[in-house]
Amino acid sequence: MKTVILTILILLVSILLLGVKVLFVKGGRFPSGHVHSSPALRAKGIGCATAEASETRNNLS
What is the pLDDT of residue 11? Predict the structure, then answer.
């Protein structure tokens, strides 16, 4: 039983810490995790796999 309570407590703290910016900052949002939003990845020439697959299909047709 102690393990279940500890697990639930850890999950609640984790969710709270992940959402600090969203919950406590006016107009706060989660940061985008998409490749197109990361200048560092774009500078390395890394693109979105879905967009690259779509381009490849279009070039083959």
Answer: 97
For residue 16, what are the CA distances in angstroms to 5, 34, 37?
A: 17, 23, 25
Q: How does pLDDT run across 22-47, given as a tens digit for each residue?
A: 778 788 777 777 887 888 888 888 88
* CA triple 28-30-33, angle to 5 deg: 150
C-alpha distance from residue 50 to each of 27, 37, 38 (Å)? 30, 15, 16
**How far, in Å, CA of 41 to CA of 28, rounded?**
24
The pLDDT of residue 49 is above 90:
no
User: Do the beta carbons of residue 29 and residue 19 sit within 8 Å?
Assistant: no
